[in-house]
Amino acid sequence: MKISELVRSNIKTLKPYSSARDEFSGTEGVFLDANENPFGELNRYPDPYQNKLKQIFGEIRELPVNQLFVGNGSDEVIDVLFRTFCEPGKDKAVTFSPTYGMYQVSADINNIELMNIPLTDSFEIDLDVFKNSIDSDVKLVFLCSPNNPTGNAVSNDTIRAILDSFNGIVTVDEAYADFNSGDSAIELINEYPNLIVSQTMSKAWGLAAARVGFAITSEEVISYMNKIKPPYNVSALNQKAAIEALKDKEGFDQRLKTILEEKENLRAALSNLTKVSKIYPSDTNFLLVEFEDANRTYDELVDRKVIVRNRNAYVKNCIRITVGSQEENEILINALKELEA
Ligand SMILES: Cc1ncc(COP(=O)(O)O)c(C=O)c1O
Q1: Which one of 179, 203, 309, 323 would you pick to mutate in the ligand 1 pocket, going by the greatest count of ligand atoms within 8 A of its CB?
Q2: How many CA within 13 A on the CB side of residue 114?
């Protein structure tokens, strides 16, 4: 399969915007090329290709810079992929439901039909259903691992089976990868040039406000994604925040450990409540919890200013609960205990 044959024809021929910083990338000199203001601290445009950030992230993930793309959050990665590979009003994409809502929103914005293939009752991908559902208009598959809101990871064997049975682009959204002790699909990147793994600094790295996400894929796919992204898609402040966070490996490990311990404490406390009928396994920083009556519990929690995510419309009577600090989790548990009384 040739990547160039999967790219939209207008993107293949697109002449991307060439920024002043594309033409000269040195750091020393008198810069009178970008109509910037000579005064101030944030007066210069940021590095359009976020090289320093990619370097550090690449060292952590053991990947070269030219296999990395930085997005304004991984939501931008999702959008750029639709715009690179799917012809509006013609091509289709596939996802496995229930899953993260932005695939649908991004598909709708780009006028792409998104086929939602249901996961099995145990939230697994049914490969036969997938194979029977795809046709030649399907250009893009999104699978989320570990999946939001179900919390379970997809094995690399399943991802491989999808890649081996489909001649298009496969994106594995690993927003929650750092919480998962299993394999990352990054391991398959060099075998499959049509595989894209997206990760984010919004979850385990604690930088949701900074809007930094990554795509990890073949150099060729990266080159097309770079053509499409806005030239300065990640601000200098956000690049700096991301670099600082990535350098603090010790702090990261400590916070990750705490969140994972708190997840087990939360699971134990929830399992003692009579209104809780099931807690699903989780490879993430949230728990999908089945209540007797999720809508009612959700409303009662909101009344007590405890905000969780009601997923009843997608998984019957389920609420998705993010693992907070010890104090926040206690507030939640106490509120739920009050409701039992
Ligand atoms: C599966 C998944 N992907 C992507 C995102 C968005 O990540 P970002 O903040 O990097 O845009 C989320 C956020 O909740 C998510 O759950």
Answers
A1: 203
A2: 24
Residue 340 pLDDT > 90: no
Residue-by-residue DSSP string for 112-160: -EEEEEEP-TTS---HHHHHHH--TTEEEEEEESSPTTT-PPPPHHHHH
Q: pLDDT category, 24, cuts 50, 70, 90?
A: confident
The CATH class, in words, for 45-247 is alpha beta
26 pLDDT more than 80: no
Letter for the amino acid at 115?
A: M
Mean pLDDT of the chain: 96
State in Å: Cα 74 to ligand 1 middle: 6
Residue nearest atom 7 in ligand 1 by C-alpha distance: 74
Nearest to 320 by CA among 270, 253, 274: 270
CATH homologous superfamily, domain 250-340: Aspartate Aminotransferase, domain 1 (3.90.1150.10)
Q: Angle at CA 126, nearest 5°, toward 121 and 130? A: 135
Q: Report pLDDT digits (tens) over 79-106.
A: 999 999 999 999 999 999 999 999 999 9
How many residues are recorded in the chain? 341
Peptide bond before residue 98 is cis, with ω within 30 degrees of 0: yes
Flag whether pLDDT at 20 surpasses 90: no
As annotated, the residues of the chain forming the CATH 3.90.1150.10 domain(s) are: 250-340
Residue 21 predicted with pLDDT over 80: no
CB of 329 closer than 8 Å to CB of 269: yes
**304 residue type, one letter:** R
Name 121's Cβ contacts closer than 8 Å, sequence gap at least 6. Answer: none
Cite the residue boundaries of each domain of the chain with CATH code 3.40.640.10: 45-247
Between vectors from CA 174 to CA 168 and to CA 175, what angle results, nearest 5°? 130
